[in-house]
Design a protein that fits this description.
Number of domains: 2
Radius of gyration: 19 Å
Largest sheet: 3 strands, antiparallel
CATH superfamily of the largest domain: Winged helix-like DNA-binding domain superfamily/Winged helix DNA-binding domain
Order of helices and strands: HEHHHEEHHHH
Distance between the termini: 32 Å
CATH architecture of the largest domain: Orthogonal Bundle
Oligomer: single chain
Length: 173
Amino acid sequence: MSATRLLVLGVVRLHGRAHGYLVGSELESWEAGQWAGLRSGSIYHALRQLAKEGLLDTSEVHEWPGRVDYAINEKGEAEFLGLLRSALRVPDRRPELLNAALLLLPALPEEEVIALLKERVHALEGERARITATAREGRRPRNATESFALRAAQAAGEAAWIRDLIARLEQPA
């Protein structure tokens, strides 16, 4: 899964109809270039690719020669929601996926978001336990042991942060 794909679909969905510059401006306001490595070229490429895959509908704007507007269609909506749910539920070592999903949380009912995040915590706890058990097997050089310790700590830290997020989401607004 790609954070770019999720973000571009999400921004087009958010605006209903959007051109490349609008998508880029929105993502820039979220500082996505810094944490997801997005550049304007990758945004325009993603828009064209998503349209080619039939996930976005296109229309040319006659008042602006060369400008193309994009709108998410039913197939794109299904893809977007699937990507968003997966990004919330499945731990991934690429932090940009979770960050993208957090920005797009309002697309799902809060109860569903909480349930997906609880699944993520469960998976992270399992990952931490697996890494810890693997690290205890056999003798390893110190650098390998430290690598295992780092990955276990990252899984534990993310699980703790997600638990805190769930608690904040469960509080009345």
